[in-house]
Amino acid sequence: MISCQNVTRHELIGLDVLVAGAANPFHREVSGRIIDETRNLVVIETHTGIKKIPKAGTAFRIGLPDRTLVEINGSALILAPEKRLRRA
To answer: What is the pLDDT of residues 40-53, one digit of tens each?
Structure first.
């Protein structure tokens, strides 16, 4: 089960997200649902379209299924998703 302690080892696609902080001011406060993830990017579907946000230099506030919010430094997510999921 996904929790605050193990969120970096789980699938993020389908979770609600808010960009809490970013090096690029145009990325700040972007919110929506994660629809894809690559090694270096999180793809977010917003009400205005699709946004590709780099993981490096970004803080994400992710809503978990139990309605708790967890803030994650994007640098902790830089790894191909399939490799990150296998990481212990």
So the answer is: 999 999 999 999 99
pTM: 0.90
The CB-side HSE value for 59 (13 A sphere, CA atoms) comes to 7
- Runs of H (alpha helix) within 1-88: 81-86
Residue 11 CB partners (closer than 8 Å, separation 6+) = 81, 85
Instruction: Round to whole Å and give the CA distance between 64 and 71.
Output: 11
3-state secondary structure of 81: helix
The verdict on residue 2 lying in a domain is no
Listed residue (13, 27, 24) closest to 62, CA to CA: 13
By residue range, what is the domain housing residue 40?
7-86
